[in-house]
Amino acid sequence: MSETPASQSANNHWAERYADFVIRFRWPLMLLLLVVTVITALQIKNLDMRNDPDTLLPPSNRYVATNLYAEHNFGMGNLMVFTLRVKEGDVYQGWFINKVQEIHTRLVELPTARASNFIDIAAKKIKFMGADENGLVFKRLIPTEGISEDSAVAAEQLAFLKEGIEGNPVMGPMLIGFEDAAGNKCEFSDRDTKNCTAKSLYIIGDYTDDVKEIYLPWVRSVRAMMDEYGEDDRFELLVAGEPYFLAWMLADLVNKWWLFVISLAIVVAALWFEFRNWRGALFPMIGVGSTIILTLGVMGFSSFKLTTMMVLTPMLLLAIGIGHSVQVTRRFMQEQAKGGSCEDAARLAISHTIVPATLSIITDMVGFATLATVDISFYKAYAYFGMFGMLTLLFTTTSLIPLLMITFPGSNAQMDEGGERAWEHKVGGAITNLLAGPGKWLPIGFVAVVIGWSTYETDILNGTSEDLMPGVEKGINYSRAAFKEQSITIQQLERLNQIMPGVISVSIPIRGKAPVSELCTETPFPEELYDIEEPAEKLAQCKKYEAELGCWDPDPCGAQGIFNDAEVLADIEAMEEWMRAHPFIGFTGSYAQYIRLINMLLTAEPGEKPQLKDLYIPSDAKLRSIDPDDDRSGDEIVQLYNGLLETMTDEGDMDSFVMSNWNEGVVMGFINTMDPKETHQVTMDIQQYIEDHKNDSGFGKVNFGLRAGPVDDLSSDTNELSVDGPDYIRPAVGGFLGATEATREVAVDNWLAGPLLTAAAVFVIAALIFRSVVVSVILMVMLFITLYAQYGLGGYMTRVENWSGNLAFHLQVALSIAMGLGIDYGIYMISRLREEMQATAGNWEQSLENTLNTTGSAVIISVIVLLGCFIPLLNTDLANTWGLGVYISEALLIDVVTALTLLPLLVKWLRPKFVFGV
User: Fold this and answer.
1) I need a labelling partner for 185 at 20 to 30 A (CA). Which of 126, 377, 527, 559 fits?
2) Torsion on CA atoms 170, 75, 84, 165, rounded to nearest 10
3) Half-sphere exposure of 3 (CA within 13 A, CB side)
4) Across the chain, how many H-helices and E-strands are there?
């Protein structure tokens, strides 16, 4: 039973006036909404969808800044891997080598390819490196025209190739994979002792950041190549890499467009089931569709860089909007079924629902707004566009739907169908009877089970001030966050991780503390410097003239830059040896490795096979340890080797490891684990190694990584590596490992603070709007039950190591959104309870039953529709959208149970004046 128009006007004066206004001017308002919708629809084509961890995360984060610095200066930031594994025999077969070269050429021809950084047997920079009586020998591993069809010539070419690969301990592990008789991976260094066979060749491609702007056509070209070469049953083709992963996420979303059609069909079916007429099924879709178009149009107009996770925004708007639509449509048809005119039914529907709708939408907007406090681009996108979409729902659902009902009144039979359904009375009566007797302990027991389960999964009883819920992993497995475990993309990645040294990159930039000066071109240093034999004295004099002339003369004083310093290279060598021995690091590479290789080649006598014992940096300390009487200068030897490499290599061949000023370089590595706990551990271990060795003779001259951002302003990175103190910040690493650690830092900072901020804002707003602290407390109880269950789900996903669903930063956005959704039901229920208490003169049981019959049934329909909306999220190969769907679906199920059972109990026991005092 509902209030009369007179009493409604007295209690909701502004709502009645608003209803009168929109009904009076319904034609101009509907026309205005139509025009605005059409205009914004024209902007949808400008949507900028991309997946880029560097733009997702805050540029001020040290890991993000370090990653960008390494990418901009050395490349190797957008790596893609093609692995070809021959099924019969070994890789040294002419047809197989030519196939690798053919694929290499196709990959280089793709847009944005950085050909000079490719690493494979056909790459320009990868050469046979040897020595003869005339010195160093650098040659291409395979002829540009491929392996000859002449068997004798081919045999010579393949033997040369084998010697070039397997005789290069520096680059060999990144070119070829070995397996034993059982098919298990052999380490490159164990290939001879364990009787291993060369079975795989790798193509590591590098692409510029411009690839992110053409992801869809680019990845479709890659997939076409995969399909083409995958038809050859003589070899196995495996593909992975950051640009391929991120681009295919976008393509998979586009390819699964039909799932969204299924979702819409489920929504229409649910609406038809509820209202049994075309108006009830169509008008809510029109209203919500208008909101979605408006929001997508604003996204396109703003040119905001969006990710595949932003697909949740239109789905949430559809889900939340249908919830509001069901409430207002249900109310209109109930009033119309009583025999009133369409205008009276619309007036009552609008005036009765506009207040709870406004309160619900405000709390939803608060939930979105708190996301804007996190410095993550897609959090901000959720916040801005979510708030805009929520605001439009006031007009497109609560207002537009009743206006459409007036404009298209339907038949008398349809009006009669607007009454309450039999199932609604059964559900309402059953819940009322349940709560009136001993059955009221069932919802209490349900909540106790949820809290107990969440306590177990989060391990909160063993929490500390540093980690309140140690059972909930906040780190990210990027691959599993991108794709589900059963997807072919993940299966290939895991297979690659079994074959290759590792599939996650790490880069450690190294910069000389002392800047380099320009070379003296007009005024050379005095010739007397050539006569100074004592190194320390000569260096002091060179520094003196450098200060006077403002330039540097390398002839008497030697080359500048830390990569001309043997001590620095020796410390890099030691760090790489430590890294290669780490259980989670499969391979490393740096410019120091080339110096080691040149030393090994030139130390061997002409005609003799180089020895691995000579694979070292010829620093002063190393030379003296071998021969105490060796008085050669390590720096001079290194500078000689640098000159030889410059002469023997092409321009750009070494740019991925060292800059032309010789004062900046990078150590690259590949991590052989994707487990978020292990990737965090290896990051901490690398930083600890740097910490332990920061004052070594070589490392005391350099800075590692960055400690602040953004990358285009290094002035903030002034914290010297060798200086300790309270403000000291450990330097970051780059590569995909750096991006992984950045997400962990962001997640740890926000996993609890963000939701608590949302809860605090909702508490204050609810208390002000309802003018009742008790009502606000009731809503907070509901909110915290849902939130704690979300943390419990995160703990469960961690325990079973389902890294597609652990509570990493990309899924934490679900927490605030789910909290906002849950509050909606509570607001509608409390508002309707107040209304029914007025109408029944304070009869609690009758008021509760009427509320459950009407608003309660609408809540059930809303949840069914909401769950239907998440079908696309749960059935694509995308793990991040699957995770969001799982978290929000869990929250919805808990919300509907607590809203229909626990909330009435709390209202009855706490008796807030908002409900009982009117």
Assistant:
1) 126
2) -20
3) 23
4) 37, 13
Quick: pLDDT tens for 456-474.
999 999 999 889 999 999 9
What DSSP element (H or E) covers 897?
A: helix 879-897
Residue 167 inside a domain? The answer is yes
Instruction: Give 711: exposed, middle or buried? Use CB within 10 Å, 0-12, 13-18, 19+.
Output: buried
Distance CA(371)–CA(379), nearest Å, equals 5
Using DSSP, state whether 322 is helix, strand or coil.
helix
Residue 185's DSSP bridge partners are 179
Nearest Cα residue to 219 out of 170, 256, 254: 254
- Torsional sign, CA 679, 680, 685, 686: positive
DSSP secondary structure string for all residues of 145-165? T-S-SSHHHHHHHHHHHHHHH
Q: Which two tokens stand for residue 393?
A: 């729902």
- The reply to whether 289 falls in a domain is yes
The HSE-up count of residue 494 (CA atoms within 13 Å, CB side) is: 12
450 & 580 share domain: no
User: In which domain, by residue range, is 215 found?
Assistant: 78-251
Which run of H or E residues covers position 871? helix 871-875
Q: Write out pLDDT tens, residues 848-904.
A: 998 998 888 878 877 887 777 777 777 878 888 888 889 988 998 899 999 999 999
d(CA 789, CA 794): 9
Q: Which residue blocks in 370-466 are alpha helix, DSSP H?
A: 377-396, 400-407, 412-416, 422-436, 441-458
Query: Of residues 652 and 794, which shows the higher confidence score?
Result: 794
Do 321 and 224 share a structural domain? no
Quick one: which H or E segment has residue 733?
none
Do 611 and 707 lie in a common domain? yes
Q: What angle do CA 257, 263, 265 make, to 5 degrees?
A: 110
* Cα gap 401→350, rounded to integer Å: 9
- Given 199, 230, 251, the domain boundary residue is 251
717 and 684, same domain (yes or no): yes
In a shared domain, residues 321 and 240: no
Q: Which helix (H) or strand (E) holds 807?
A: none
pTM: 0.84
Same domain, 572 and 655: yes
User: Distance (Å, rounded) from C-alpha 378 to C-alpha 371?
Assistant: 9
- β-strands 48-49, 305-306: how paired? parallel
Dihedral, 574, 579, 582, 588 alpha carbons, nearest 10? -130
Token look-up 């409604």 returns 8
Placement of tokens 């909290």 in the chain? 819
Per the listing, tokens 């929250």 go with 891
Distance CA 739, CA 745 (A): 10
- What is the reported pLDDT for 9? 40
Extract long-range pairs of 541-545: CB within 8 Å, 24+ residues apart: none
Amino acid at 528: E
**267 and 313 fall within a common domain:** yes
Residue 51 lies in a domain: no
Q: Measure the CA–CA gap between 140 and 122, rounded to whole angstroms.
A: 8
SS3 state of residue 292: helix
- Residue reference for tokens 């070994």: 90
The residues near 106 (Cβ < 8 Å, ≥ 6 apart) are: 225
Q: Is the separation of the CB atoms in 621 and 570 below 8 Å?
A: yes
681 falls within a domain:
yes
Quote the DSSP letter at residue 417: T
Q: Which of 198, 221, 251 is the last residue of a domain?
A: 251
Residue in the block written with tokens 């419990």: 792
Joined tokens for residue 810: 């990309």
